[in-house]
């Protein structure tokens, strides 16, 4: 469904992503993992065109998307979250979800008010995620976990067919984490394809169908969780550590 071919992103002399190749199968939960600085977020940024790739191409359902604008990519069915929540100041959760989901470019952002259709849709999604009770809370008063759920709600407003989640477990307490995992599973069961960057290896090992491992900008392994756990190059990249603890 999603194909990354020869992707490179250089920052001066730093090769953050260097000839990266991998695919994401339709209907899968695929994880992109790797040690700090491996290039995961930069790869995400290039795929969603938050950053312009230096070289290479990105294909969604056979269409080349790396030359499109971010909102055009969202219109094609690919949406992403960010490591740091993009919570808009002085807005309720409902307003955040609707404003963040306005994907038609800057004109869309200038719309004066939320339409009843937008409100109905957003409330339906908040209900699906079990967070209607915080719809009218100020977005900046939320816990990390609640912010992640708010971001997920905003993502779902565009009816995506594939979502990219950047560290959905980061800073989230264990109870809410299980809730988020449950929602990801439920969405995947309904046919949504998921690509996820995450440092929580225990979570990745039980949630993912496939794992792509990056180190120093390159893909060093790609396979099922059981294969990845045993892969010497992967263990080497992590120097044992987190991966062994997760097994
Ligand atoms: N805007 C930038 N300017 C210069 N260097 C950058 C920039 N963004 C990322 N880098 C560098 O590119 C490399 C890859 O960074 P990236 O954030 O993509 O890695 P990551 O795998 O997501 O790391 P982490 O798991 O710590 O979030 C790092 O060496 C980083 O310092």
TrEMBL record:
Annotated GO MF terms: ATP binding; ATP hydrolysis activity
Domain ABC transporter, residue spans: 2-241
InterPro entries linked to this entry: AAA+_ATPase (IPR003593), ABC_AA/LPS_Transport (IPR051120), ABC_transporter-like_ATP-bd (IPR003439), ABC_transporter-like_CS (IPR017871), BCA_ABC_TP_C (IPR032823), P-loop_NTPase (IPR027417)
Gene3D superfamilies: P-loop containing nucleotide triphosphate hydrolases
Keywords annotated in UniProt: ATP-binding, Nucleotide-binding, Transport
GO cellular component: plasma membrane
Keyword Kinase on entry: no
Organism: Poseidonocella pacifica
Protein name listed in UniProt: Amino acid/amide ABC transporter ATP-binding protein 1, HAAT family
